[in-house]
Every structure is written in structure tokens, then in C-alpha cells.
Amino acid sequence: MKSKTVGVRCVPWGVLLSHWNLNIRKNQRDEDGLAVILGADITPREHLDEVAEELIPAKGRTKLPPVISVEMLEDTFKGIVLSFDGAVETSTRQGSCGCILWELPGWKILDEQGFILEDVIVNDAEYCGLLNCLTVARVRGVRGLVAVGDSRIVIQQV
């Protein structure tokens, strides 16, 4: 082996591979982070997320929106809360969605709607729940509201 950078930990591999001619070259471009993975030691469990974060290509990263839940609203909050959800039986592609408009404080229900959906996927059902509730809010003249749902995709994209 001619490489000057081969360390002690690579010697056993070199012995195993000595039956073949090896040409070891420094990797100049590593889009997948493979060199990082191969050169890494065992990472303690508590640092795995940090290491994985460095391996994700910057192009594919999206900034996560702040998580908003009803529990985060102050006790003194006065306004409208829109809550939506959707679900689908994936084998039949039949689903439903629902939405509720609440007025706080007091949790007064202003409107609630449910819809049966055909030939949809889960994201379609979630979007349908949000869009139908926004339509109800617009018809009622609501100008500002807090939207709460369990669909990360819908929340990120809206």
C-alpha cells in the first residue's frame, strides 16, 4: 500500500485486500458524505443527530416552521382557532376530513364540518380539511385566526 495517510485501523483491511492491486485516491468531491461515514468512529447515541445533520445535502433542507398547538396559546388569548384533520383508508382510497372553528376564550364552537372523500391520499384529506375550514371562516368574515392541525406537510407548505 502506497498511501501515506493509511492509519493503524486500516492495516487489517489492507492485509485482507492484499491479494488485489489497490489504487487509493483522495476523494475530491463527496456529495453523499460517504467519506465522512467511512472515516467516522463510533458516534455516541446522543450526538447522532448532529452528525446526521452534517450529512444532509444543503439543497434538500427545509426550515421547519415553529410548532403551534392550542396548548401554546396564552390563557388570555381572544380570537378564533381553526382545527382541522383528515384521514384515509389507504387500501380503498376513501377518506374523510373535518374542521372546527372555535372562539376563545370559552371554546365556543362557531362551526363544524365533516366531509366524505373518494379517491384521495392522506395529504389530500388533510388539505381538504384545512381548505374547507378556511372557506367557512371566510364566509363568516373571520380576518385572523390560529390554524392547528397534525399534518406537518400541510403546516409547512401553507
Automatic annotation (TrEMBL):
<protein>
    <recommendedName>
        <fullName>RNase H type-1 domain-containing protein</fullName>
    </recommendedName>
</protein>
<dbReference type="GO" id="GO:0003676">
    <property type="term" value="F:nucleic acid binding"/>
</dbReference>
<dbReference type="InterPro" id="IPR002156">
    <property type="entry name" value="RNaseH_domain"/>
</dbReference>
<dbReference type="Pfam" id="PF13456">
    <property type="entry name" value="RVT_3"/>
</dbReference>
<dbReference type="GO" id="GO:0004523">
    <property type="term" value="F:RNA-DNA hybrid ribonuclease activity"/>
</dbReference>
<dbReference type="InterPro" id="IPR036397">
    <property type="entry name" value="RNaseH_sf"/>
</dbReference>
<feature type="domain" description="RNase H type-1">
    <location>
        <begin position="84"/>
        <end position="158"/>
    </location>
</feature>
<dbReference type="InterPro" id="IPR012337">
    <property type="entry name" value="RNaseH-like_sf"/>
</dbReference>
